[in-house]
Amino acid sequence: MSPRTPSTPRQVSASRVIEVLVEERSAAAFLEGVLPRVLPPQTRFKVRSFEGKHDLLQSLPSRLAGYAARRRDGEDVRVLLLVDRDNDDCQDLKRRLVSHAMTAGLTSGAAEPGAVLVARIAVAELEAWYFGDWAAARRAFTKLPAATPAAWRNPEHASGKPSHYFQSALRRAGYTGEVEKSKPTWGRKMGVLVDVRANRCPSFVAFVDGVRHLAVAQ
Fold first, then answer.
1. pLDDT digits (tens, 9 = 90+) for 78-129
2. Cα separation, 81 vs 116, whole angstroms
3. Taking a C-beta distance cutoff of 8 angstroms, is the pair 120, 81 a contact?
4. Which of 116, 138, 173, 209 has its CA 20 to 30 A from that of 99?
5. With DSSP H G I counted as helix, E B as strand and the rest as coil, what are the percentages for the chain, rounded to 5?
6. What is the C-alpha separation between 213 and 181, in angstroms, rounded?
7. What b-and-e string marks burial along 103-141, b requiring 16 or more CB atoms within 10 Å of the CB?
8. How far apart are CA 133 and CA 197, in angstroms?
9. Distance between alpha carbon 173 and the CA centroid of its chain, in Å?
């Protein structure tokens, strides 16, 4: 994928804040490195992690209702949801997320000019995005081999859990202890290094596009 030509940043209201909801601490660590490089300068955001996907989905109705109430009180709060697909049907999972948004009274969908909520799904897990930018993975973990593992050259169509295979790749490269086992460590290292303009995972590209739209939508 060829790098995109960066567009001229649009002015963003100083009062605008983006609330980012993710499944776990590793995703939060990753996005805290990615978002400052995707969002317009000085955009305020807060990443909130949950105790897994079930916990996030269970908490979503009340959480979104709270954001809707803040908007009715005049706050320009926007919401970014990121969940792993795992073994779920992608379209069904997306419908569930959008349904929660609509029930709360939040306009969703990056195609809508007034959208204040964007929901994105990592296929099949966020760790697939690491295989989608193997050059960044090698900068983060310098002992990894030069070539992307053959089974993961098309990360979103590979079989198995990306997180398990990334851990195995680290172990084979000689990493042990916290580095091998800690997903938050992976997220923290990868978030500041992944190329936000070039990744072989379509779900990462869709995520970046959704973030940019959410930040500037009127």
1. 999 999 999 999 999 999 999 999 999 998 877 666 789 999 999 999 999 9
2. 11
3. yes
4. 209
5. 50, 10, 40
6. 35
7. ebebebbbeeeebbbbbbbbbbbbbbbbbbbbebbbebb
8. 10
9. 26
Averaged pLDDT for residues 55-70? 98
State pLDDT tens for residues 145-184.
999 999 999 999 999 999 999 999 999 999 999 899 999 9
Q: Quick one: tokens of 208?
A: 């970046």
- pLDDT computed for residue 168 by the predictor: 96
**Is residue 158 reached through a cis peptide bond, with omega within 30 degrees of 0 on the bond before it?**
no
Asked if residue 194 lies in contact with residue 136, where contact means CB atoms within 8 angstroms, the answer is yes
State the average pLDDT over residues 128-148.
98
Identify the pLDDT of residue 4.
43
Tell me if residue 79 falls in helix, strand or coil. strand
**Token code pair at residue 118:** 């964007």
Q: What is the C-alpha R_g of the chain?
A: 17
Q: φ and ψ at 86, to 5 degrees?
A: 55, -125
Give dist(CA 105, CA 13) in Å, integer: 22
Nearest alpha-carbon partner for 167 in 154, 185, 153, 155: 185
Q: What is the pLDDT of residue 55?
A: 98
